[in-house]
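Q: Joint fold for the lines below.
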Amino acid sequence: MRNTRSIPTLDDVAKKAGVSTATVSRCINTPDRVVQSTRTRVLKAVEALGYTPNFGARVMAAKRTFTIGAIIPTMENAIFARGLQAFQEELRNRGYTLLVSSSSYDPQIEEEQIRALVARGADGLLLIGYDRDPALYRYLERQAVPALVAWAYAPDVALPAIGFDNRAAMALLAEKVLTFGHRRIGVISGVIKGNDRAANRVMGIKDALAARGISPDTMTVIETPYGFENGEIAMTELMQSSTPPTVVMCGNDVLAAGALRGASLLGFGVPDDVSVTGFDDIELARVVTPALTTVHVPHREMGTKAATALIALVEGGQSVGAQELTITLQLRDTLGPPKNI
Amino acid sequence: MRNTRSIPTLDDVAKKAGVSTATVSRCINTPDRVVQSTRTRVLKAVEALGYTPNFGARVMAAKRTFTIGAIIPTMENAIFARGLQAFQEELRNRGYTLLVSSSSYDPQIEEEQIRALVARGADGLLLIGYDRDPALYRYLERQAVPALVAWAYAPDVALPAIGFDNRAAMALLAEKVLTFGHRRIGVISGVIKGNDRAANRVMGIKDALAARGISPDTMTVIETPYGFENGEIAMTELMQSSTPPTVVMCGNDVLAAGALRGASLLGFGVPDDVSVTGFDDIELARVVTPALTTVHVPHREMGTKAATALIALVEGGQSVGAQELTITLQLRDTLGPPKNI
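A: Joint structure:
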């Protein structure tokens, strides 16, 4: 309704306030970026005319909407929460508002949300990982909406990205696990299809085995959607097999928290009877008992740098290339030597 | 850029495909709501003309954008995650896309985000709790953007809402705590200013005390932003006072998880030395050891009903009034009798 009725225009407001339409637009979109005196004058004109911002008019005036979209696979479990929080804080410092969509790890939903955010005028998009229909990247190029990939890093892919090498990170942890003497490794992985991060983490474990000349057959992999309950169920399955693993490496901290719970319910002590590792180092890793040994992802650094890089793309149109962040191991209390050594 | 260059219009596509502009708009916005044959015809016309949806034109054609905005206080800690997930699923069933903003519990940021979502053409908004500048409600009314309040319920406020009575819920838990014999009650509350849910939860505890003729002076309240670390710090402060509480009631499960950690680090057993309670019953409540006694909030039911109610507002324009959901106590392992009884 608000879009069809006749209303005072942005031009009317600009004339009355004696400023440019871009300034009016900015007063409405990002008041923090306008000096107080101008803001007051514009807002008085807005009130006097009964002007209600019409977003078509605003886009025409500003070219940009100062809105950034992010599509993340899930809002549950806080995997992306800390990084997104830092992303949003930095965007806000620069006068941009963040709108977030959650795809439930479903490519079809992600596509709908990308299109919706573009249709709503997003100046740029943050996407998690690389793995999606190439047609979507072409669509974004046609729409001239820059996209930045985060949470992953692939130097051989020509997309702007801020992330880390999931495969090398998990290989580093697996090497640590092998150093402890483990040879029967259980893996609880997220669903690999459509998720390059999950796929690369499993490959990282294989890399570490291969580097020591150990057959990947020593590894039992269960794939399951990320989730506490699913980690618990998978752990139960692994530990009730005829040759249970001495260590269970999980694709993220949420699965690992579930695995800890599963071990506890079965009466297995961690790490005395079985070791468990995670990935992400979200707050949950310190909440569980014992505290989780995991891969530390620099969530806040990634979020802040992603905001800077995406704004550079939006404002300058130049690609920032792919930037790799350093990951580290966070050794806590769930990884120890195998029982029978 | 994409908004200023000359491009084929929605009308062109509609003519070429032999359908109405509304149908074209729907094919682009919500393809699931259009039969396959029509969709194929429209998409062919889109491809042939090189049409790229211009959201101004789309809004003109559809009147609605089939986009719903939600502004939540935080994406961290998954407090709102489960409810939002159900909200999004139901919206999607009805052909709507959800865009989410997170305000970091900051009224100024929330206002910016409300305005940004309205400017981006949101058909309706989900807001958490009632407590905000009345000018914002007037702004939404002027913009003809319906808003639904969730996570709270106040029958005396004339706003559409789906929620629960935070005060009565916490009073129910406090009454349970008193039944166990506790009289020295520590409270770790979220920041009350601007947060009616936090305020009402503390009032609920006072109600339960008053109902038994117990002075509220038996209660020590620490206010702190929701967060695991903050719960831990507040717990330490409470337990190191000259007369430590026998039970610590927390404003949510995240604070309670931190409190459990604080108790553990100080060497206090839960519930033998001190009882701890939470609020929300998010997954975290089952992850911690011992498992948390808390107030169960029907997150998924609330999310689903909120979607139905908000769409009714958007499509029918009729208020759905305020609907109250039933909460229950989830008694697990962190509440027991006080030590010295």
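Q: Anything notable?
A: The domain at 67-164+298-326 of chain B is CATH 3.40.50.2300 (Rossmann fold). Residues 299-316 of chain B form the longest helix (18 residues).
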